[in-house]
Amino acid sequence: MMKKLFYKISAVALSFIVLFSTMSFTIDKHFCGETLIDVAYFGKADDCGMKMKADQQKMKKKKCCKNETEVIESPTFDKEKITTVTPENITFVIYHLYSYINIFQEISIEKEYYKDFSPPDLERDIQVLYETFLI
Fold this sequence. Notes:
It is built from 4 helices and 3 strands.
């Protein structure tokens, strides 16, 4: 029972790890001055409501609000990083597997010393003698 439950929990955990490791998403942050106002993980962050008019923007050189967008991408597999298969690699893998397979051999032990065993002859019936009976 516990073994099946452990397998189910570990399967769900591993599937979530695979799902989130291959998923990419963006984090959008809105700052008003130095203060973080809003953070959005999948959409656009809400602004603080301080929109300047066109003539005020011309007068000021620097805005007080700013948006930052951080993109977190999933890892990609590069074809250059994949090692090529050479005969030396194949022989190494074969010898490595062969050495570990031979360590764990299954041994069958049969109890042959009970095969021709006959119980000893009873001279008297001990249960009746001592009046001990199994119920």
